[in-house]
Amino acid sequence: MAEISLQQLLEAGCHFGHQSRRWNPAMAEYIYATRDKVHIFDLVKTKKGLDAAIEFVKQLAAQDKKILFVGTKRQAQEIVTAAAKRVNMPYVTERWLGGILTNFDQINKSLKKLRELREEVAGTTTTKFTKREKLMKSREIARFERFLGGIESLNKIPDAMFVVDTHREEVAVKEAVRVGIPVIGLVDSNGNPDLVDYVIAANDDAVKSIELIVTAVTDSVAKGLPKIKEKKPHESVS
Length: 238
Prior knowledge:
This protein is α/β, with parallel strands linked by helices. The protein has 2 domains: 164 residues, Rossmann fold (3-Layer(aba) Sandwich), CATH 3.40.50; 48 residues. It is 44% helix and 14% strand. A 5-stranded parallel sheet has the order 5-4-6-7-8, sandwiched between helices. Strands 1-3-2 form a 3-stranded antiparallel sheet. α3 links the parallel β4 and β5. It starts with 5 loop residues before the first helix and ends in a 14-residue tail after the last helix.
């Protein structure tokens, strides 16, 4: 995607914040006006924040760094999942499990347990487990995959985190701050920008707004990724 214009931000509804009574005063510098008791973002500042964010993630990707994508709200789940998969980055779109960053060793144990369960079920003979035991193990695998499947590729704490709705994902943001990794955040008028390194002040409820911002970020990641020569269909892997 080419550089995002002010017109594109406007058409996607990025300028709409929350009702003025639901705001965080720390967001005052990003707000242009109040109309019908709804805050309106200054899209010039939104664009400036987005431009800085996409340049940052491009540099990270070029260094083969891992960016954790987080977006558990209903409007963001499918968008974030698809975007993260497209650029082969880890993601959390179901529920943030406390300790993903601050207690990563325990999370790693859970991921190891998931892999062991898969191997156990895949490698068993039909007589090793009863039908009920297989069902219980399959359910346990499904539960692990639902909450941890998106971060299965992580073998260490990620190098940065991109968050849709930093207010909703406050626990995740605070964990990132605690372990010292930078946060790129889509921050609405009720969010706390002081916890975010790269603030993209915009509507985090509208699907079009979320999609525009997430796509811009992942496109930049894709541009920064080290170029790998694609094999032609007839070429074999030695």
